[in-house]
């Protein structure tokens, strides 16, 4: 498949989980260059780079905290200078710090909002300039079912992910005239490190509320991301595509 031939793709949080699956899917779909970012897990990032190279892509891993807006802008700048363009940005990096609002510390609130929402904003701001010059691009933000339906114990996470939906729709309107499409993918419960802490009991309770009767896997989310990034979605912008096994319709 060569749908992404000559395309340069940046996936944040590509060292593990959903981000890794997205990066590998782009490489397998023929993207010439796939850059992943990570926060600190260098071994996992290097492993992803190996997988991308094995799939035939030029690959590189860059370390920066997406909550650091200057670092994000500089990373986008370097990608464009090094690889000549940026066609697809996937804002996937995210964190969840669970806890009830009445006990939540300011720093836990800030960490989730800064990483999940402000980070995406800063990278979109930085990517929009080169994409406008190219008169084309695709941005996909990874939100969450929790941003759509709320979840006790995840108020900050939910607020950050709901914010991403508003950001997606607003930027989609701002950039549409330049042929830049901005969409979101909203996963349900996906089997990654982020959900590995769940007890068997809690996991079963979750599964009981999912019509398809199981957790999703990262590759199933990557499929939706690839669809929205590619030509098959050329008339889709401002959309939130649910990948949740039917748990929220
Ligand atoms: P994960 O396995 O925990 O991986 C998180 C990724 O984000 C890692 O690559 C991590 O880098 C990176 N990261 C975390 N904080 C960062 C920061 N401050 N700066 C830069 N990179 C950072 O998570 P996942 O389950 O794949 O989730 C990926 C995205 O999907 C997140 O936005 C998450 O909210 C969303 N999502 C997940 C689920 C689910 O059920 N798993 C459901 C809905 C939405 P390191 O490897 O260096 O730590």
UniProtKB/TrEMBL annotation:
SUPFAM superfamilies: NAD(P)-binding Rossmann-fold domains. It catalyses: a (3R)-hydroxyacyl-[ACP] + NADP(+) = a 3-oxoacyl-[ACP] + NADPH + H(+). Pathway: Lipid metabolism; fatty acid biosynthesis. The keyword Nuclease does not apply. It is an enzyme of class 1 (oxidoreductase). Its EC number is 1.1.1.100. Keywords: Fatty acid biosynthesis, Fatty acid metabolism, Lipid biosynthesis, Lipid metabolism, NADP, Oxidoreductase. SMART domains: PKS_KR. It comes from the Bacteria. One of its GO terms (molecular function) is 3-oxoacyl-[acyl-carrier-protein] reductase (NADPH) activity. The keyword Transmembrane helix does not apply. Transmembrane segments: none annotated. Residues 7-188 form the Ketoreductase domain. Catalyzes the NADPH-dependent reduction of beta-ketoacyl-ACP substrates to beta-hydroxyacyl-ACP products, the first reductive step in the elongation cycle of fatty acid biosynthesis. Homotetramer. Belongs to the short-chain dehydrogenases/reductases (SDR) family. This is 3-oxoacyl-[acyl-carrier-protein] reductase. It comes from Pyxidicoccus parkwayensis. The gene is fabG.
């Amino acid at each position: 498949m060569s749908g992404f031939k000559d395309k340069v793709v940046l996936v944040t949080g590509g060292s593990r989980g959903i981000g890794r699956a997205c990066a590998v899917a782009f490489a397998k779909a023929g993207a010439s260059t796939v850059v992943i970012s990570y926060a600190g897990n260098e071994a996992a990032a290097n492993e992803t780079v190996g997988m991308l190279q094995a799939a035939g892509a030029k690959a590189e891993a860059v370390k920066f905290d997406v909550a650091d807006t200057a670092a994000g802008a500089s990373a986008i700048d370097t990608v464009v200078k090094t690889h000549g363009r940026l066609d697809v940005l996937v804002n996937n990096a995210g964190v969840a710090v669970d806890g009830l609002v009445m006990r939540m510390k300011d720093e836990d609130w800030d960490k989730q909002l800064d990483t999940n929402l402000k980070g995406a904003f800063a990278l979109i701001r930085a990517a929009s300039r080169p994409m406008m010059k190219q008169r084309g691009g695709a941005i996909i933000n990874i939100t969450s079912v929790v941003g759509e339906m709320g979840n006790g114990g995840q108020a900050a996470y939910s607020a950050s992910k709901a914010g991403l939906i508003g950001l997606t729709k607003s930027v989609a309107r701002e950039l549409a005239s330049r042929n830049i499409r901005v969409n979101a993918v909203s996963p349900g419960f996906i089997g990654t490190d982020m959900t590995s802490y769940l007890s068997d009991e809690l996991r079963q309770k979750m599964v009981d509320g999912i019509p398809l009767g199981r957790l999703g896997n990262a590759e199933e989310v990557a499929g939706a991301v690839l669809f929205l990034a590619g030509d098959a979605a050329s008339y889709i912008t401002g959309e939130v595509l649910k990948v949740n096994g039917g748990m929220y319709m």
